[in-house]
Design brief:
By secondary structure, the protein is an all-beta fold. Helices cover 0% and strands 56% of the residues. Strands 2, 4, 5, 6, 9, 10 and 11 form a 7-stranded mixed beta sheet that branches. Strands 1-3-8-7 form a 4-stranded antiparallel beta sheet, with no helix packed on it. A hairpin with a 6-residue loop joins strand 4 (32-39) and strand 5. The protein is globular.
């Protein structure tokens, strides 16, 4: 069982940067794929980025601005967000799954990111 705790959200002006962290406990993350999703008010949850053994994926809406990374020694995943836009405003969720699974199994409680224009 993996517990995930996000941090680093907040209020930032458009064009600014934030770095989200996702710290895991209960197991080592080295055997897991990690991902970031977000959900804006009135919208469905959408994938932002993921990092697996095959590499990284970033959605078209954040490509070139956001970067997902991981530090297995610190049992932590990160989402560096640059050039933030108002449309990036959402609750951001960290998620994990065993590398041999397709379903995202573990979720954090979410952290709010608000970008003012």
């Amino acid at each position: 069982q993996v517990q995930l705790v996000e941090s680093g959200g907040g209020l930032v002006q458009a064009g600014g940067s934030l770095r989200l962290s996702c710290t895991a406990s209960g197991d080592r993350i080295s055997g897991y794929d990690l991902g970031w999703f977000r959900q804006a008010p009135g919208k469905e949850r959408e994938v932002v980025a993921r990092i697996t053994g095959s590499g990284t994926y970033h959605s078209d809406s954040v490509k070139g601005r956001f970067t997902i990374s991981r530090d297995n020694a610190k049992n932590t995943a990160y989402l560096q967000m640059n050039s933030l836009k108002a449309e990036d405003t959402a609750v951001y969720y960290c998620t994990a799954r065993r590398v041999y699974l397709s379903k995202w199994t573990y979720w954090g409680q979410g952290t709010q990111v608000t970008v003012s224009s």
